[in-house]
Amino acid sequence: MEWFMKGKGKPNGKKPPTEEKKHYLDAEYTKVRVVDFELKELVVLPREIDLNEWLASNTTTFFNLINLQYSTISEFCTGDTCPAMSAYSTTYFWYDEKGKKTKCTAPQYVDFVMSSVQKLVTDEDIFPTKYGKEFPNTFDSLVKKICRYLFHVLAHIYWSHYKETVAMDLHGHLNTLYTHFIVFIREFNLMDPKETSIMDDLTEALCTPLPPQNHVTER
Predict the structure, then answer these.
(1) Which residues are annotated as a binding site for Zn(2+)?
(2) How confident is the model over 173-196, as a mean pLDDT?
(3) pLDDT value at position 3?
(4) Do the domain assignments include residue 3?
(5) Which domain holds residue 64?
(6) What is the b/e burial string over 160-187, where b = at least 16 CB atoms within 10 angstroms of the residue's CB?
(7) One of this protein's Pfam families, by short name (predicted)?
(8) Which pLDDT tens digit goes with each residue over 29-87?
(9) Cα–chain-centroid distance for residue 81?
(10) Is residue 175 within 8 Å of residue 205, measured between CB atoms?
(11) Residue numbers belonging to the annotated binding site
(12) Is beta strand 2-7 parallel, antiparallel or unpaired with respect to 90-95?
């Protein structure tokens, strides 16, 4: 299964939609985290661990955490509120196993993502858990595909459901999860920077260390 993204801006001279305010960039929100240590320390490959095992462990963890984060706002993400899987000026389309392009609602897209990733991470031939079993030659490309899917979900949560996340006081968890994920994919070059560029402003805000005296954490 594949995905496709398309920007709303068209080369026919039409003006793009008026840019909406990105509330998730407000300083009062970006300063809220749930950890107060350097996340890069969590993603660096330990000397005694195999690279593929490390990628498998972290990828599975991020899948579970992002799935959980989405579940907190899933009741607000419906076919009516989110008729397309969008984030800022980008719309994501789904391609099924036969290569058929599908424009689906956001909840449908997320369901496709979570179902397909669940299938991959629980496949013993792809994510082996038994000692001595080799990872497939395609493992690196599959991890990159999973990371793209998961990034789309995070981007959609920020763009379409940040208000609900703040209302539930879960924005600190979301900020920490997003930062941890970005640091991870950067450490192992798992995504092309162009694919994550729509969230570069947030990435810069969250990956910039906060002054100790202004650091705010959630309990």
Answers:
(1) 77, 82, 156, 161
(2) 93
(3) 47
(4) no
(5) 25-207
(6) bbbebbbeeebbbbbbbbbbbbbbbbbe
(7) Mob1_phocein
(8) 555 544 555 667 788 999 999 999 999 999 999 999 999 999 999 999 999 999 999 98
(9) 20
(10) no
(11) 77, 82, 156, 161
(12) antiparallel
